[in-house]
Amino acid sequence: MPADQYWAALPTDDIGEQLQAKVDAYNSDSLITTFGQRWNRSYQYYYGIDPSGIHATSQVLRGGEAGELAEIRVNHSRSLVNTLLNLIVAPKLVWQPKAVNIDYDSVRECNLAAAILEYYWFEKQVSRHAVAAIEEALVFAEGFVLAEWDASAGDDYAAEPGDAATKTGDVRFTNVSTWDVIRDPHKRSWDACDWVIVRLWRNRWDLASKYPDQAADILKASETNTRSDVRRADTNDGSEDDIPCFYFFHKRTAAIPSGRESVFLNTGTVLEDNELSYETIPLYRVSAGEMVGTPFGYTSYADILGVQEVMDALHTAIASNQTTLATQCIVVEEGTDVDPQQIAGGMKVIYIPAGSTTRPEALQLLRTPAEVFSHLQNLKKEQELLFGLNSVVRGEPQSGELSGSALALLQSQALQQSSTIQANYLRFVEGLGSCLLSIIKSRASIPKKIAIVGKNSQFLVTDAEYTGKSIERIRKVQVEIGNPLSQTSAGRIELAKMLMTPMGPDVPPLIKSTEQFLQVLQTGRLEPLTQSISTELLLIKSENEQLSRAAFAPQMQPALPDPVTGMPPPPQLTEESLPPVLLLDDHKLHMREHRSVLANPEARRNPAVARA
Lowest-confidence range among 61-75, 88-102, 492-506, 592-606? Predict the structure, then answer.
């Protein structure tokens, strides 16, 4: 490589060799080797697998020279991860797309964008990818999701009846593990990385069909890679169809103004090489914490594995003692005339020779020191402490020792402990949402059909189809956690009671019927109750814009000057330039909100605006 040229700016014919060199250098880095050992250890403990590959938590394994040890593993570490994972992902997320301004069209696009995000989150299972990423972050310190535009996905579309159908295209999401994300290990943080290489396993026959010019190289490519991950061996004993395929992304920087994205094989063969076609690198990361001074994450799960190993040893000692020595031995004096048949077989009379002072007695070998059980309980508490949890959130409240308020305090403290990770998760979801809308805006040129909103809001979206232009005003996405009170049955009951009470002399209760009460009780959703006021406020916003434009509307009828004063009369407004008024409107609300049109000096000096 020329010394005076940036390696990422090399031409297509030369970039493949440099990209593969980056992968090889990353795999041989000493820091990555250390991380690889940690990832393997975390993987084995999380899924209950021993170093030989046997699932150790579903059976009792025999160890020791003569099989005298009953090796048993009680996987508390996985239980702790699942508890924390549920705390993070359980609250309902509320999507809040943000537009460039707050006019009626922008608000309408925000409603459409929120509906699209909701659709993809549930119907397209984006939530499943997000949950899998945060689970990997808790276990392996980082989780990733790659968002790509797939032109071959989506529904069939034909512009006219009889035309050949084509695909509408769609966004494809893929979970990527931390060991499949190659980056510069010498950067000080993840945000400082200018480029990233993602390793994915693709079907060689699909790749050969997509890139026919390189089909020969693709079909000859090896399945092996220079470094194995926690699931694959170094030898070629996996699927013969799947091969590692690498995706290179480079940010838009001074050296690479247009950015860059390439697809290449582990042989250095470049399948595709283009400018970056996304606003940012479409790889989104969530971490449990950051390892300061490196572009890698850190998780407390690594801190509890040593404790888990000691707990496994103590469980093995207790189980071995009890399974080996649970059958009691009988001690008798040597030479005593006691037949073994007198001891075995149930209740019998045992005859002791006359004058003998020694009677048969049981040899107590089963007893395990109480310190072992005490230390085991202490280790369990240490694990919970290291992971920021307690017995209350794990479903083991000490109700006999703590009051109800104390239990509630312990639960709230556990939620506070997870707030940092939850904040990382929310930022990660915001990134996914913003990326989704950005890709749709730039790539979705063919109309896509979607179930956007409920029946009560049909007028907000006039069409059942949308394209990228339908949300062109949206700039970013914010995500908030839904009302925690609506997440539990007791909370929904309290919420329903509150909404049945008037909030003032001019503010009636939101719940006015049994049906509405049951709806809040069952779902916790308040949107149906506030639908009327929300839609009317949106209507008023549209009318305010119409009133502001009315003074300058071309439909205004010209008027002749006054014959006495010679001054032009006030403009005559046509009916088409003014919003219609209905008897059922909330006129007090409309008048109060319409005043905002005149709430600036320029509008007050314009008689046309005041007249409108």
Answer: 492-506
